[in-house]
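Anyone up for a design puzzle?
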């Protein structure tokens, strides 16, 4: 995602400085202010992709079996 890339390349810069133009600056602030977007929701996609990648990699160890308590 370009927002992450822009900010990571210039961690000490302000959003307008890192974004480079008004459209990207506005898009960044709109994303951050969107109540439908949360850090948890964004990270969930990354977690899911990582789990799938590790489970389908050659030599991957299967996840531990779930146990019931009770």
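Challenge accepted. My sequence:
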């Amino acid at each position: 995602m370009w927002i992450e890339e822009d900010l990571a390349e210039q961690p000490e810069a302000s959003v307008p400085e890192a974004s480079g133009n008004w459209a990207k600056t506005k898009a960044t602030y709109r994303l951050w202010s969107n109540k439908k977007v949360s850090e948890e929701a964004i990270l969930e996609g990354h977690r899911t992709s990582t789990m799938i990648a590790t489970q389908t990699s050659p030599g991957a160890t299967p996840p531990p079996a779930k146990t019931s308590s009770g």
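A detail worth pointing out: The chain has a mean pLDDT of 85.
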